[in-house]
Specification:
A hairpin with a 5-residue loop joins strand 16 and strand 17. This protein has a single domain, classed as Alpha-Beta Horseshoe (pyruvate-formate lyase- activating enzyme), CATH 3.80.30.30. It contains 9 helices and 18 strands. It is of the alpha/beta class. The termini are far apart. It is globular and about 55 Å long. Helix 6 runs parallel beside helix 7. Bound molecules: iron/sulfur cluster. Iron/sulfur cluster (SF4) binds next to strand 7.
């Protein structure tokens, strides 16, 4: 799976490194001082991830937990994200990671205890200043939260942390069905597994290398039946002439796996790109059907559909969800702004 595995030398005796050596005997192991000395130093084309993927193991430095961008989660509560990995084994053709790092190689950080200490401090301080209110922490901003958990093994640590932080919520955001580590754990009301979903034809065309819609719905059903709280993301929504029919089908299928009243929250958002990511998509996936759409540069300099189209798409999908029985208060528009253009 990984041609080379680069390890920060001070982690050479770490149990995770010893485990990786046993798991990947054919990989070449190299020791480095810091991940940043090698990762992304020379631009590596994004699509090389198909044939040559390296792994980096290190410790995350700097600010480990950051405020999330506006409209990241249900409004009215503060949202933060934390970073314990860079990059993803999947290849969604709209993914912003293709324009974010200089390399598609996977980076895994092992200092979960330091990340957890920052989360705990923020949650404890928040409990003092805002008694009775909730604070959110999101994993998976630069990676998929479940795809590699059989390798990374951090889930028990975060479950234990959040079970002792009753004012804090954890969101694990994923397109993966790699739930075997998750199902070994006891669900907790404040730990939400959230799945990004799209209609079947969109999943096949755009979410390259990911598990298909049926498999994701089966994982949702299994986790729901085991008692895990589930969130849903319809994001990014890509416009096409069968959008109403395909989202209606998707919502019907979702309701069979997860009763509408059991959904913790659902985000809806249309496809959008920074200028840099848009150019990468043009380069990497020039035949993508959505590139033929009329995009505009909008309020936050991101490239997206014009406002009437965005409002029409979001309104349609929201109405379909409400008709299926989803509580309107639990639907939020992701990265949209009421005054946006
Ligand atoms: S699953 Fe998420 S992080 Fe991974 S390629 Fe797709 S959009 Fe990117």
């Amino acid at each position: 799976m990984f041609e080379k595995i680069f390890i920060e030398e001070h982690l050479a005796a770490h149990p995770k490194v010893i485990e990786l050596k046993e798991r990947f005997p054919a990989s070449e192991f190299k020791y480095i001082t810091k991940v940043e000395d090698v990762f992304g130093r020379v631009k590596k084309p994004y699509l090389q991830k198909r044939t040559n993927l390296n792994l980096f193991i290190g410790e995350k430095k700097g600010q480990l937990v950051k405020p999330a961008p506006p409209a990241y989660g249900l409004s009215g509560e503060p949202h933060y994200y934390f970073v314990h990995a860079y990059n993803c084994i999947y290849e969604c053709n709209y993914c912003y990671l293709q324009g974010y790092f200089q390399s598609p190689d996977i980076v895994l950080f092992l200092n979960h205890d330091e990340i957890g200490a920052e989360i705990k401090k923020l949650a404890d301080d928040f409990a003092i200043t805002n008694p009775g209110e909730k604070i959110w922490f999101h994993a998976g901003e630069y990676s998929d939260s479940l795809a590699l958990t059989h390798l990374t093994g951090e889930l028990p640590y975060y479950f234990n942390l959040f079970k002792n932080l009753p004012n804090a919520y954890l969101e694990l955001r994923t397109k993966s069905v790699n739930i075997k580590e998750l199902v070994k754990l006891t669900p907790s009301e404040n730990i939400v597994v959230s799945f990004s979903l799209a209609p079947d034809h969109r999943t096949r065309t755009n979410d390259l290398k990911t598990p298909g819609l049926k498999a994701r719905l089966a994982a949702i059903r299994e986790l729901h039946e085991l008692g895990f709280p589930i969130g849903i993301h319809f994001d990014p929504i890509i416009y096409d002439d069968k959008i109403e029919e395909s989202y209606s089908d998707l919502i019907n299928q979702l309701a069979l796996a997860l009763p509408p009243e059991a959904i913790k929250y659902i985000s809806i958002g249309v496809v959008r790109f920074t200028k840099n990511v848009y150019h990468q998509v043009l380069k990497n996936y020039p035949d993508s059907d959505f590139l033929a759409d009329d995009f505009v540069k909008s309020f936050d300099n991101k490239i997206r559909y014009n406002k009437p189209t965005r409002m029409w798409v979001l309104g349609k999908v929201k109405n379909l969800l409400i008709e299926e029985g989803v509580d309107a208060a639990l639907i939020y528009e992701c990265m949209e702004d009421d005054d946006s253009q």
